[in-house]
Amino acid sequence: MIHVQAPEGTTYCIDSTEVTQAHYAQFLAAVQATPGTEHPECGLNKDYSPTLWPDSAENEFCKHDMWTPSATPNRPVVCIDWCDAYAYCTWAGKRLCGKVGGGPGPFSPGTVSGPDPNNPAANASLSEWYNACSQGGITPYPYGDTYQPTTCLGWDALDPDAGGKGLGDVGSFAGCHGTAAPYSFIADLSGSVSEFTDESYVSPNDGFKDYVSRGGSYANGHADMSCISASTVGANAPGPATGVRCCKSLL
After folding, report:
1. ∠ CA 190-70-15 to the nearest 5 degrees?
2. Secondary structure of the chain as H, E, C letters
């Protein structure tokens, strides 16, 4: 983990990379918690294993070759849901990245569609994940002010004929990190896989709670690769381009 500081002075640690398949396999082999007990919103969670669907030319959602920890131990784990990610971080003695200082982080849907200066999830003094990605709120991308299409693993860095298939090992894009320590030791906050956080949004229309993943993925283009990028999804919805990174408070 990498020790970082928010602008108002709070310090915490964040994983230097996304959780790998090898890390997650260790969790599956050792975890003793009962699925569904990890969080009050997770009563429907029945299994911590990545959700896989039968392989077929028509099915592009969480194929079996997306979970091969023996063959691809250093690729980020995907096809887990928010509850699985929460359980992993707890088992590892950490927690999902949320509010600076600990606890669930604030969020508003403005982050999804674009910058919102009043959005607490785009405030480096309030959001652990955003603070780490933006180098303390200084840059819109982890590597600087201007989007670079091949610096991080997004759609623009792939051969279009690959159809978005390009998930590689964590840290495999050498320039995809901050420009100075400690941020220079944190890889893949843009692209690779979108990362679940302990941030959520409750719709005022129906009261339904969605959880947040941030940073874009190998399947995303320019608009979704910045530090304000975010997606919302239900607690039990896995995806082929979403993984996790953990944070930890310092005593």
Report:
1. 35
2. CEEEECCCCCEEEECCCCCEHHHHHHHHHHCCCCCCCCCCCCCCCCCCCCCCCCCCCCCCCCCHHHCCCCCCCCCECCCCCHHHHHHHHHHCCCEECCECCCCCECCCCHHHHCCCCCCHHHCCCCEHHHHHHCCCCCCCECCECCCCCCCCCCHHHCCHHHCCCCCCCCCCCCCCECCCCCHHHCECCCCCCEEEEEEEEECCCCCCEEEEEECCCCCCCHHHCCCCCEEEECCCCCCCCEEECEEEECC
Is the distance from CB of 210 to CB of 234 less than 8 angstroms? yes
Over residues 17-57, the pLDDT tens digits come to 999 999 999 999 999 999 999 999 999 999 999 998 776 55
Strand order in the sheet with 230-233: 230-233, 209-214, 194-202, 242-244
Q: What is the pLDDT of residues 171-208, one digit of tens each?
A: 999 999 999 999 999 999 999 999 999 999 887 777 78
Q: How far is CA 14 from CA 67, 94, 101, 195, 197, in A?
A: 24, 9, 13, 12, 12
Give me the sign of the Cα torsion angle 1, 90, 92, 189: negative
Sort strands 11-14 and 95-96 into parallel, antiparallel or unpaired: unpaired
Structure tokens at 82: 């928010």
Nearest CA-CA partner of 238 in 93, 115, 114, 82: 82
The answer to whether the bond into 182 is cis (omega within 30° of 0) is: yes
